[in-house]
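Deliverable D5.2: sample structural annotation.
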Amino acid sequence: MSLPALLAVASLTEVSPGLIAWTIITFVVLMLVLKRTTWGPILSLVEEREKAIVDAVDAAKRERAEAEKLLAEQKSAIADARREAAEMMAKNRDEVERFRQDLMAQSKKEADALLTQARQQIDDERVKAVAQVKAQAVELVLAATAKLVGQSVDDAKHRQLVNEYIATLPSETRS
């Protein structure tokens, strides 16, 4: 029988036990051949790929853990640096304030010393001026007395009389 005749005779709905047996035998032989030649290498490639994926996932987990560790260290270092900077700023601020206070105290001390020195100089100058005015007053009185009396009295005696009179004056008038 030829193939077209066989096809014409056999219908698709007809069950043929011989055909079923040959189909099963062909399927089993094909499975054995494929298992030996194709499934083994395919499965080994799949297993290698699976192992590579697992290794990549593990490496990614390790790298992530390391990155998180480094991030925590960096955050800690940044916090430490900020704390140290704040401490340094506070220390510098305290030093500047202490320096300012020392400078103010020194300036006040120098100003007080200059003021005391100026007052002392003023008092010294006033005492000199009063002595000078007294001396000029004595000279004027002597000159006026000499003109009034018309004669010259002993200079030492005149001075003694004028100084005694000035001593008897109230102290407010003398200053």
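Annotation notes: Residues 49 and 75 are 38 Å apart (CA to CA). The two ends are 166 Å apart (CA to CA).
The annotation will be released with the project's public dataset once the embargo ends.
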